[in-house]
Design brief:
Length: 119
């Protein structure tokens, strides 16, 4: 489909900054594909701005699932103009109280997930 609207892919649009940015872009006429980790959230996101927001279930830690998501968007529009790697989470508390396992899991999502989507 050929469109003059910008095509966005924003990971992590279940709330906060990702959701707000997606809404702003869609309300300004752009097309926004937003990823959400939990089942059922994609349909709700798709209904936010009719014909402008499209929810896709994706956990950025499942790197093998990223390619098909990108292919889906590229097959429809031929491009992604704006990529926002917003999926992630914080660990709160003193650094010495965070286990190495918790830190590794956070890096897997916040760093390697973003890297995998970008590549």
């Amino acid at each position: 489909m050929i469109t003059s609207s910008r095509i966005w892919l924003i990971t992590g649009v279940s709330g906060g900054l990702g959701r707000a940015l997606a809404l702003e872009a869609a309300q300004n006429g752009d097309i926004v594909f937003g990823t959400l980790r939990k089942p059922g959230q994609a349909e709700e996101f798709t209904d936010l701005v009719h014909g402008k927001t499209f929810g896709i279930q994706l956990d950025v830690n499942r790197h093998n699932d990223i390619g098909p998501v990108l292919t889906h968007i590229l097959d429809q529009f031929g491009r992604i103009d704006v990529l926002v790697n917003n999926a992630g989470y914080g660990l709160f508390g003193a650094a010495e109280e965070v286990s190495m396992q918790e830190a590794r899991e956070q890096m897997e999502t916040n760093f390697f997930g973003a890297l995998a989507v970008t590549q």
